[in-house]
Each structure stands twice: as C-alpha cells, then as structure tokens.
Design a protein that fits this description.
4 copies of one chain form a homotetramer. The first copy, chain A, is of the alpha+beta class. Helices cover 22% and strands 40% of the residues of chain A.
Chain lengths: 148, 148, 148, 148
Amino acid sequence: MSPEEPENNNPASIVKAMYDGDRFSKLLGINVESVSEGACVLSMKIREDMANGFGIVHGGVTFAFGDSALAFASNSYGRLSVALEASISYPAPVNIGDTLTAVARELSRTRRIAVYDITITNQDKNVVGLFKGTVYRTSKPAPGSSGS
Amino acid sequence: MSPEEPENNNPASIVKAMYDGDRFSKLLGINVESVSEGACVLSMKIREDMANGFGIVHGGVTFAFGDSALAFASNSYGRLSVALEASISYPAPVNIGDTLTAVARELSRTRRIAVYDITITNQDKNVVGLFKGTVYRTSKPAPGSSGS
Amino acid sequence: MSPEEPENNNPASIVKAMYDGDRFSKLLGINVESVSEGACVLSMKIREDMANGFGIVHGGVTFAFGDSALAFASNSYGRLSVALEASISYPAPVNIGDTLTAVARELSRTRRIAVYDITITNQDKNVVGLFKGTVYRTSKPAPGSSGS
Amino acid sequence: MSPEEPENNNPASIVKAMYDGDRFSKLLGINVESVSEGACVLSMKIREDMANGFGIVHGGVTFAFGDSALAFASNSYGRLSVALEASISYPAPVNIGDTLTAVARELSRTRRIAVYDITITNQDKNVVGLFKGTVYRTSKPAPGSSGS
C-alpha cells in the first residue's frame, strides 16, 4: 500500500460491506472467493434465467460478473472508486449450467486513476470473457473502510 | 437492405422471436419500443434490486441494457449475429427509480462484421451510458427470420 | 460554456498553440479545418509511408488521427485534459492516397471527466474509423488559454 | 499449432516479410526483438518528432507500437489477420527519449477470431500502455507464409 492510501484498512471488511449492499451481485448469485489489495476472485453459477434469445448466456451477465470484480478490487484500498469505462471481449460462449470464475488483477494505479483486467473462465478453464476497466478514485472513503 | 441479406425478413418478427426466449432481458424488465433494420429503441425501469454496493445502479445493468439493444439491432436483418466485444463509458450515475432509454444505431456493416453504438439516457435526457459493440455475422438464420 | 470553465478562452487560439507544438500531428500531415468548444474537424492525406505490411494503411495512423481530434476537442475549453483511454473500430480499410476527415463530438463532460467520439471518413464518405476516448480534465490551463 | 492452421509455417519468416513492407513501423523506428506463434516482443526509441502539443508523446505513437505488435503476433500462424477493433489505456505518460518495449500475448483464438493483449513498458519497467485488440482471421495466407 502506498503512503497516499487510507490507513488501517482491511480489504476483506471493505468488500464485505460493499457486497452486503450489492443487491444486483446477489441477484446474480455472485460469490466472493478471496480478496486482497487491488485484487479479488469471484465465482458464479449460471442459471436458466440468464439466457439470451439464442439460448446461450446474455453478454450482460458475463459483463456484470466482471464489473463486480472491478468494483471490489478497486475499492479494496479504502478509497471510494467508480468505473469510468470498461470493455469486454467474448472469446467463447457461456452456457447454462456453467460455473464461472473471475480473477481481477491491477494493471496500474495512480492517485486518481486505476486500471484493472479481469479474466473470466468456465469450469473447463476456458476463457469466456476478457474485461478491462478504468476507475476514478474519489477522495471519499469506501463502505467498510476506516474512514467511512 | 443490401442484396446479400436474407430475403423477406421482418425485423419486428425477428426481434419478437428473440425477445420471447431472452429470459435475462425479461428478468431486467427490458421493453422493446421499436425496431427496424439495424436499429431499435428499448426502455427499462430501474428497480431497487439493481443497486450495487454504493446504492447506485450496478454497471452491469446499464451494460446489459445496451447489450440487448446490440443483439436486437444486429440480428434484425435475419442473419444470426453474435457479439465479439463491447465497451461502455459511464458519463453519469444511474439511480434507483430512473427510466432508461436505449437507442441503437448502425455505424457500419459488411458481410461478416457490423458495428453499432447505443446511447443510453435517463428520464431527464441525460446520457448515462455510451455503448459500442462489434458483432460477427454468421451464415445461420436468426430466430424468427425467413430462414429459421 | 458552463460556469466552472476557465473564462475568456478562444478555442481557436488554444488549438493553434497546441498544434504549433504537436510535432507528431505535423509529421502525419494533419490539418485543423475547424474548432469550437468541445468539437473539431481535422483532415489528413494518406501517404505511401503510412502503409503496413499488407499495403493498406497502418491502424496506428488512423488511430493517431482520431487521437489528435480528441486532444484538440477536449482542450478547447482551456483546461488541460489528458487521455485516459481510447478505443477504435475499423469498419473498412484505409488506402494509400485517401483523404480522411475526422469529426469530433462531445458525448459528455463533467468537472473531471469528458467523453468524445470521433468519426473518421474517407473521400467517398465511407466510415473507416470509429474512435471513442475518455479524458481526465486537470486543474491546469491548456496551452494558449487565458490561464497559461 | 492447432490442426486447422496452415502448415509448415515459420513465424519469423512471416513477420520478416510483413516488416519488410511495413513502412509506417519503419518510420516509427519499431524493431522486432523476437517472435513466436501468437506472440512477439518489439522495441522502439522515442524521438522528439513524436511529441504532442504538451511536449509528451502523442498517444497515437504508443497505440501504433501496440498495433504493430498485434499485427505481427496475430499473423504469425500464416493466416492473414486484420484488426477489427482495439483499445488502449494510458497508465502513465511517455517521454521523449524513452525506450519502449511491447510484449504481445494471445488471450484467445478460434477459427475466425483471435484476441491479444499487448503490455507496453518504458526503460524503468513502468507500464505506459495497455492495449487489447481483436482480429478477424481471413482464409488468405499471410505474407511470407507457405501459402503466400
């Protein structure tokens, strides 16, 4: 943690507080597997009501899974951070019944801006989503941080 | 419609067939307002269970709304088209209770690849999402098309 | 111009000062056709030394053309603004000898963040590049502005 | 190499043939350090004529460097591949005199579509560009391949 970060923060406490209020992540059945500063691992079981008009999984489900990982990883330092933009590539379709894993990695972080990539794989270790997102780091404390 | 497109197709019939099977768009309460070749307009009312850990709307909801518009606009010619990648920028937050509108516009279309942008606004005409997506146009018929 | 913008600025003076120092835009032969707050139009003639290994134009040339438009449009208010990220889609190839036009449009602007799209067309009005970029608006004055 | 790839190809020969005709990569002083199937490493020395209007390096230079890496890595199998879209994030500015390195990595590859990320660092190992690109893999042979 760099000197400019809020002090005495616990990434797990912050992500727990965020997750407790995150009704959409819960609606999707997203689980937090692990979290550390600038990183997290999430899992998710794909349900039948996540299909699109082709019978495969709606791209918004896969994106939302990555977006939750972006939020948890970027807020883990205790500074409230909001997404400015994100992009996703879909190398392979996601099917009903799949179990997905998202691994968030911090690519860069300055005082105001940070960039993350999130790799989304299925139960066969095939990559089904490649997500990249940029956040703006506000001066406010994140939920569950020492300053909140 | 260019000569290479499937013939005798009705964009409304295709989008109706897609929407009928699109359980995730229905879960989100997405409505189809209008549709034509390469274009569509959707609406959506934001519910409390769409919030993220900050009490504003989860970015995945806004993205999924844009992604449904991408699917409907790109499949409207009768050729089954799948998203390769998409990106979104969030100029302003979406709040619980907002009513969103998505307007999809075709930016380019060749035999195999087409690009769309979707502008997402709230009830005050403020832009809350700028979505751009690229699709791969397969040789298969879309649901509800003359070839399906 | 919103009340929070620097006062008494002339977009043309700012862009002229930026362009005067912009050696790479000059190396590429980029011309400024017009400029106003949050917008600009640029032109560029494609030379033989802009080809890639396939004999068509290197994607970096088209992107750089869009990136110059992003810089000029976003700095036109007098506040020094730097790109955080950008994306481009290539609907059609650019050929040696083409004359390109870039039109920059402001999609959103808050105190710290602004988003622009730039449409790049050739002499036949075909779209050859679709560029979207996000800038961070610093507290410093842009070159050529009243505060510089 | 999967069974569906062209046979008896040498990634180094293909990239050499592409580079020989790639006048823009040469104009920028891009060097090929190494190449293998789906991957490559490039280097580049930043010159004074690559500055933008702020005296730092034009974003188009950094993007073009990544775009050359995308082209070389994606064509290395012997199948002519063209970029559909690409995005870049700029975690830190590039300065005149810097020496940049681009490392291309294949994230996914199917018969028609492949996705790559390219990490661009300076001489101090700081990340200055994060590039992601999608290519369309045609049925034609790449320059320098066994089928060309």
